[in-house]
Structure to design on (408 residues):
C-alpha cells in the first residue's frame, strides 16, 4: 500500500505541465458533476411553485441554469444579444482577479522559500492604511490633474509595499533569529494589524463626514486611472491599467525567481536548505528577505484595494489575503499560474452574485459549489506539495564519483 502511494505521489511530483493542466481540467469537470448532483438533490427539499417533477417529487433547482449563471453570468452573459465587454459583471470578475494576483503572489513567494505566510491579510491591511494616509498627506503638496495622478499613484503603491514589507519582515526576523514558527506569528500579527489600524483610524484618521469607520477619501485624481475610450466606467471600480500592472508584476516575480541569483537562493533555501547552506546562502538573511518581499506584495494588494476599488481605507477589509493562500496552492506556487488561479476565483466570486440574483438557490449552497470546485482543482497540487516535501519519491540510486553504483 505504501509503495502504491509513493508511486502515485512520484507521478504527481514529476508530472509535466501538460499533464498537470489535464488533471486540473478533469478535476474541474468532476467538481461540476458532483456539484450538479448536489444542487439537483437539494432542490428536492426546497419549496417552489414550478420545478421538475420526477418520481412524485418536485426538484426546484436546475443545475444547468446554476452553472450557466456561475460561469457565463460572471462575464455578463456573453451569449445574450445586447452583451458588451465593458459590463459590470466582467468588471467585478477582473477586479477580484487583479487583487488576488497580488495576494497570491505574496503567498507563493513565501511558499517557494519554504515559509508558510498566513499573514498576507495583515500585511494587506497595514499596506492599505499606509497607502491611504500617505496619499492624503502628499496630496497637500502635489498639484492635481495628470501630474497629481503620475505622482500620487506610484507614491501610494510604494507606501503600501513598504508598509506590507515591514509587517512581513517582523515574522521573518522572528523565524530567523528566534526560531519562532512563522505560521503562529503571522496568524497573531493578523489580529494585531486589525487592532492597531482600527485604533489609529478612530484616534486620528477617521473621516469626520462619514458614519462608517473609514479614512477620508483620497483625491479623485489619486485613484488608479483607466484607459480612455476602451476602459471600464469609473463607477465600476476597476481599471485595466491595474490589471496590466498585476500581470507585469506576475511576470517580473516569475523572472526574479527563475533568472536571478536572489531567486535561485530563495528557491534553494526552500527546497534544499542543507544544500543552500553548503553553497554559502545566508539562511537567516534569506528568510527575512523572503518574508519582506512576500509582505510587500501583500501591501501592494492593499494599495490597489484602496486606490482602485474604494478610494479610501475602511475597517471592513475583505479576506483577500486568506483567499491568496488558496490561489497560490491552486497555482502550485507558480507565479505565472497565479494569474489563472486568480481568474478562476474571480469568476466564482462574480458568478456567485449572478446566481443569487437570477435564481432561488440559497447563498450557502452557492458557497458549497464554489468550495467544491476549488477543493477538487487544488487537491492534486496539494498532494504534489506533500510529495515534494515529505516523501522521498523518484530519487535516483546513489552513485560513486566514477559513475558506478554506490555500495550499501
Amino acid at each position: 500500500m505504501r509503495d502504491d502511494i509513493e508511486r502515485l505521489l512520484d507521478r504527481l511530483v514529476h508530472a509535466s505541465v501538460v499533464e498537470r493542466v489535464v488533471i486540473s481540467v478533469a478535476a474541474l469537470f468532476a467538481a461540476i458533476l458532483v456539484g450538479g448532483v448536489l444542487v439537483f438533490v437539494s432542490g428536492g427539499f426546497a419549496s417552489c411553485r414550478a420545478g421538475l417533477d420526477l418520481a412524485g417529487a418536485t426538484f426546484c433547482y436546475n443545475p444547468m441554469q446554476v452553472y450557466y449563471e456561475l460561469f457565463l453570468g460572471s462575464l455578463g452573459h456573453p451569449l445574450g444579444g445586447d452583451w458588451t465587454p465593458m459590463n459590470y459583471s466582467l468588471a467585478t470578475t477582473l477586479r477580484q482577479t487583479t487583487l488576488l494576483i497580488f495576494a497570491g503572489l505574496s503567498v507563493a513567494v513565501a511558499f517557494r522559500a519554504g515559509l508558510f505566510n498566513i499573514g498576507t491579510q495583515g500585511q494587506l491591511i497595514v499596506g492599505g492604511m499606509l497607502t491611504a494616509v500617505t496619499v492624503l498627506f502628499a496630496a497637500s503638496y502635489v498639484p492635481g490633474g495628470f501630474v497629481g495622478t503620475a505622482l500620487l499613484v506610484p507614491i501610494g503603491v510604494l507606501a503600501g509595499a513598504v508598509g506590507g514589507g515591514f509587517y512581513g519582515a517582523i515574522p521573518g526576523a522572528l523565524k530567523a533569529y528566534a526560531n519562532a514558527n512563522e505560521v503562529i506569528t503571522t496568524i497573531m500579527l493578523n489580529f494585531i494589524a486589525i487592532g492597531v489600524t482600527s485604533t489609529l483610524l478612530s484616534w486620528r484618521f477617521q473621516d469626520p463626514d462619514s458614519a462608517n469607520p473609514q479614512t477620508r477619501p483620497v483625491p479623485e485624481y489619486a485613484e488608479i486611472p483607466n484607459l480612455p475610450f476602451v476602459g471600464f466606467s469609473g463607477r465600476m471600480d476597476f481599471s485595466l491599467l491595474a490589471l496590466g500592472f498585476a500581470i507585469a508584476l506576475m511576470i517580473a516575480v516569475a523572472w526574479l525567481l527563475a533568472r536571478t541569483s536572489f531567486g535561485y537562493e530563495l528557491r534553494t533555501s526552500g527546497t534544499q536548505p542543507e544544500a543552500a547552506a553548503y553553497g554559502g546562502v545566508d539562511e537567516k538573511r534569506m528568510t527575512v528577505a523572503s518574508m519582506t518581499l512576500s509582505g510587500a506584495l501583500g501591501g501592494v494588494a492593499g494599495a490597489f484595494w484602496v486606490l482602485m476599488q474604494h478610494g479610501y481605507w475602511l475597517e471592513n477589509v475583505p479576506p483577500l489575503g486568506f483567499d491568496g493562500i488558496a490561489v497560490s496552492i491552486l497555482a502550485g506556487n507558480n507565479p505565472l499560474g497565479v494569474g489563472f488561479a486568480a481568474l478562476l476565483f474571480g469568476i466564482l466570486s462574480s458568478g456567485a452574485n449572478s446566481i443569487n440574483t437570477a435564481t432561488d438557490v440559497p447563498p450557502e449552497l452557492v458557497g458549497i459549489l464554489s468550495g467544491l470546485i476549488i477543493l477538487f482543482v487544488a487537491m492534486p497540487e496539494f498532494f504534489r506539495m506533500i510529495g515534494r516535501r515529505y516523501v522521498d519519491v523518484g530519487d535516483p540510486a546513489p552513485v560513486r564519483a566514477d559513475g558506478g553504483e554506490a555500495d550499501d
Summary: The beta strands are 52-54, 57-59. Confidence is low (pLDDT under 50) at residues 392-408. The chain has two domains: 6-75, 88-358.
